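Our collaborator T.R. sent over the components below with a one-line note: 'Predict the complex.' Nothing else. No constraints on interfaces, no templates requested, no preferences about which chain binds where. So this is a plain run: every listed entity goes in together, and whatever single assembly comes back becomes the starting point for the next discussion.
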Amino acid sequence: MVANMKRIFALYGISAKLDLLWFLRDTKNCVLNIMADLVSSLSTILAMFLLSQRFDSIGGMSSDHILFMLGFACLLDGLNLMFFTMNNVGYISRIIGRGQLDHKLIQPNPIWMQLLTDGFIPFSGSSTFLCGIGLIAFSSIKLNLNLNILDIGFLIFYLICSVIIIFSFSYIFSCIAFYAPVAGEEVSTAAVGLLDNLKGFPLGGIPYQLQIIFTTILPIGMTAWYPANLLLGNKLNFTNYLLIIVTLSLLLIATILFRKGLKHYATKGSIRYADRGHRR
Amino acid sequence: MLTYIKTISLSATKAFDGGLLYIFGNYFLKLVQLFVFLLIWNSLHNQGVDLGIFTIEQLFLYSILASILSEQLNIVTPATTAFWEGSIISRYLKPLPVLVQLSAETVGSWIPKTVFFSIPVLLISIRYFNLSKYLASHGIMFLLSLSLSISLGFAFDYIFAAFVIRLRNAHYTAYSIRVALVTFLSGAVIPFDFMPYSLAKVLEVLPFGSLASAPLLILTGNGNVASIISLQVFWNIVLWPMAVTLFSKSQERMVSYGG
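Returned assembly:
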């Protein structure tokens, strides 16, 4: 356990060093990339921000509440960008579909450890996260929220749950790539895109049955709306443990399917390097 | 002409290279996104808020049409990707003008979405959202405005392509910024009338407004047709010569690492 932790931090250190080197050696392109990520992330929440400013409240949330929720969405986006975007870690169907899982299988570290650390880009990937902190701080002041240590602890916990939900959702669909590598190569893009594009939507005004669908089967609401409302102390028609239940359920399903897919991969391999391979 | 039709056809079938799953995954994503947007408009309507120039039916149609025509209202030719991948060189080896090839490929790439997404959603809109009534009243001017919008979209993309050539190895970066900005500034996501702080007045006259907002406002009967179309013609006259000049000048600087 201790050895694993040491190894994880060492690998984080290597990833961070590589990221810093990119910034130092190719500053212009790195800064451009940081700007692009920021603009891209903000554009997904900007529409809802402007609507909330125009209409004051949407779906039972005031414009300041919506700003807080968008801050949470931004933090979540930032965390995903900082930990799971580089090297397609969060888009595992690309790795599977392209036969690049072989590259991971020959490394001297377990796959889970590689997936946890390969995507870490603390310098070039931190812009959206910092922007999210700013939005949360600004909206908290506007709402007169006195966030104490416990609240911040809950914020971090809910963020981790939401990250796991997106990660698991992506991995569940990505398992298709084990069996259909060409067709399934980009399936994680659609899966993550679904949650990413709709994460800033307040779902309070829609029918309850649809709210249930959007917090469980298609967990759009679990990426910002539900956790933000929990943090704000707003009453929802759901149990307060739903976030944890959905997180654990999706994680369990993703683990089972991924292990099953991995077994299939171990026996069938990838057609990438075959003469008829799709990426040869 | 047959050569271009063949290019369009090849481009249309190429969309299936990634498999049905990818194609239909994206359509599902678009459908859910549209559905959630309609739910948001409906919840605002139920709240009793002032929807400005729109009735709820017009607002639904605005979002539905924006979704159906998303590829035509924010045109992305294969130019940027081709620079990035290095495959642009193959376009120069063919005995056809490069910009026309890229345009034909773009038109071809629209076909799968039109068949599997746009037409079914269009039929649903005719059945449940009275689209036929709006098409009968404003259809001709809408088609004219849409044609001008598509033409302007191509000009935009070629200007952007010229910019990307100068940026050299930052194609993806520039592409991300461009898609984010155009989607937001063109009125394709939320109508300008719903923008706070008088942003609408500025965005309407920018060339981005002539891309998506213009034809959608005409179809829903919420725009001054003469001024909207005049503005679209004006931007076409300004941007097309700019696009052709910038692209031909930038070609000399083209460097691609491929990959």
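Summary for T.R.: The mean pLDDT of chain B is 86.
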